[in-house]
Design a protein that fits this description.
Blueprint: H1 2-18, E1 43-49, E2 52-57, E3 64-69, E4 74-76, E5 87-93, E6 99-106, E7 109-116, E8 121-129, E9 133-138, E10 144-151, E11 154-161
Antiparallel strand pairs: 1-2, 2-3, 3-4, 5-6, 6-7, 7-8, 9-10, 10-11
């Protein structure tokens, strides 16, 4: 009986201590020069994939998207991504860090955009929607994109490929 009790106690202790590292607090230094993850500005909607953290911040006087490499502890430049006449939100990045998908509002209409870090090009996937879209997510391999769209008083989920073509899933609003 004592052996059975000791085995159960040991099993419980091992299971409980195995979860001690989650959730984990990430500690990055504060910097006033805007080259660090932490700044005096607000950082909104962080999204983590692999070693990359993407977020929206107003540190440059407009709502821009930033990419932080947690492994190398530095911000990564994103040439030709942010525009002064757009409000960017809800970025999501593929695990390899190549593709970044996000929502941009321009002249009151929302659009879904894809940024390719290899070519340094931003291209619209879905533009000029009168319906609000939110929460885009790109798959870890960068092949699929999901997002929510307001439709007749409810939020529907849409799934597309990386070119913005709807995938053959019943109920997809872009069919």
């Amino acid at each position: 009986m004592k052996l059975f009790f000791l085995i159960n106690l040991l099993t419980c202790i091992l299971l409980l201590t195995g979860c001690s590292n989650y959730p984990r607090l990430l500690s990055f230094p504060f910097s006033d020069n805007n080259r660090s993850f932490n700044s005096r500005s607000s950082e909104l909607n962080p999204s983590i994939s692999g070693q990359y953290i993407t977020f929206v911040s107003d540190r440059n006087g407009s709502q821009d998207i930033f990419l932080f490499d947690a492994k190398n502890r530095r911000l990564i430049d994103l040439p030709a991504l942010n525009a002064m006449d757009e409000i960017a939100s809800n970025p999501s990045i593929s695990e390899d860090g190549r593709y970044l998908v996000f929502i941009a509002i321009k002249q009151g209409k929302s659009g879904l955009y894809l940024y390719d870090r290899t070519t340094q090009q931003k291209r619209p996937l879905i533009t000029q929607l009168k319906n609000e879209i939110r929460n885009p997510m790109i798959s870890s391999n960068g092949e699929r994109i999901t997002f929510e769209i307001a439709n007749n008083g409810q939020w529907d989920i849409v799934v597309t490929d990386i070119k913005g073509n709807p995938l053959n899933i019943s109920g997809n609003l872009l069919d």
